[in-house]
Write a structure and sequence with these properties.
330 residues; Rossmann fold; 2 domains; globular; oxidoreductase; 2-hydroxyacid dehydrogenase; D-lactate dehydrogenase (NAD+) activity; NAD binding
Length: 330
């Protein structure tokens, strides 16, 4: 099968080539998939895309006209896919149903730890031979209330880590995990969790229901000075409302690995150019905000699993043995 990979960086290619093992003909494009770049897939049976690629109706229509029959996602979420359009155009959509949940959960912990103990600030200071402690005081995580919104695989991994710190773990999810409850996790209604938690970490998918889940109203329910960590999807946050809460002190600190309008910025080097996005610029310069560029998934183990699952999905499809949880549009 001829497969065109979009948004493919040099660090991904060795993993994909190793997982392919000469089963398919792979072509790698650095370009993001958009209606303007979809013509690059002409002559390919399948494409493979990442989180910020565009699988909207206009793109899918161009792909269909160019003979593409299949789109494989190198990710779990598929909110970037116009599913009715894919069904209409007969383009099958596959995904990676799971990869190392520990990678993202551990990154959420890393953001929290850095924000709390100000290690990112201390690192910059000591590089300049400044060894003072002013402004670096944190707090013990032991005994704090951690609110987890979404207790799927990643949320569950995060919960287990925080239990190991001696935290009291609160959770909100429509589907409650019996295992987490056995471990001592307490499920609460959303507003009750927001009002009780010292730290809130988001681990839920982006859906119409969760869009701007953390808005001005939700922020007003939170403890004053609470910490917020988002390693899920940028649009879970109402960015202007979060910025206002940071400025007023209602929100004490924010760790974010995703951003609502990240498509034009993340995975690219903007160091030589001022950011046109005023909100993102404000977030990256705020002393109580730590921004990473969607790197929560970025571990060796996760990259290997993503590559193997993606290529195996394509191979299994040829033999009609594809796992059900890998199919978005069949």
């Amino acid at each position: 099968m001829k497969i065109a990979f979009f948004s493919c960086h040099s660090y991904e290619q060795p993993f994909l080539e190793a997982a392919n093992n000469d089963r398919h003909q792979l072509t790698f494009f650095h370009e993001t998939l958009t209606p303007e770049t979809a013509h690059l897939a002409t002559g390919y049976q399948a494409i493979c895309v990442f989180v910020n690629d565009d699988l909207s109706r206009p793109t899918l229509e161009i792909l269909m006209r160019n003979g593409v029959q299949l789109a494989a996602l190198r990710c779990t979420g598929y909110n970037q896919v116009d599913i009715p359009a894919a069904q209409e155009f007969g383009i099958r959509i596959l995904r990676v149903p799971t990869y190392s949940p520990h990678a993202v959960a551990e990154h959420a912990v890393a953001l929290l730890m850095a924000l709390n103990r100000k290690t990112h600030i201390a690192y910059q200071r000591t590089k300049k031979n400044n060894f003072t402690l002013d402004g670096l005081m944190g707090f013990d995580l032991y005994g704090k209330r951690i609110g987890i919104i979404g207790t799927g695989r990643i949320g569950m991994a995060f919960a287990r880590i925080m239990l190991g710190f001696g935290c009291r773990v609160l959770a909100y999810d429509k589907v409650r995990s019996a295992l987490l409850q056995q471990l001592g996790v307490e499920y609460l209604p959303l507003n009750e969790l927001l009002s009780e938690a010292d730290i809130i970490s988001l681990h839920c998918p982006l859906t119409p229901e969760t869009y701007h889940l953390i808005d001005a109203a939700a922020l007003s329910h939170m403890k004053r000075g609470a910490y917020l960590v988002n390693t899920s999807r940028g649009s879970l946050l109402d960015t202007p409302a979060v910025l206002m809460a940071l400025q007023t002190g209602q929100l004490g600190a924010l760790g974010m690995d995703v951003y609502e309008l990240e498509d034009d910025y993340f995975f690219s080097d903007w160091s030589a150019t001022p950011l046109p996005d005023a909100d993102l610029d404000a977030l990256t310069h705020a002393p109580n905000v730590l921004v990473t560029s969607h790197q929560g998934f970025f571990t060796r183990e996760a990259m290997q699993q993503i590559a193997h699952t993606t290529l195996n999905n394509l191979t299994y499809l040829e033999h009609m043995r594809l796992p059900e949880d890998a199919i978005v549009v069949g």
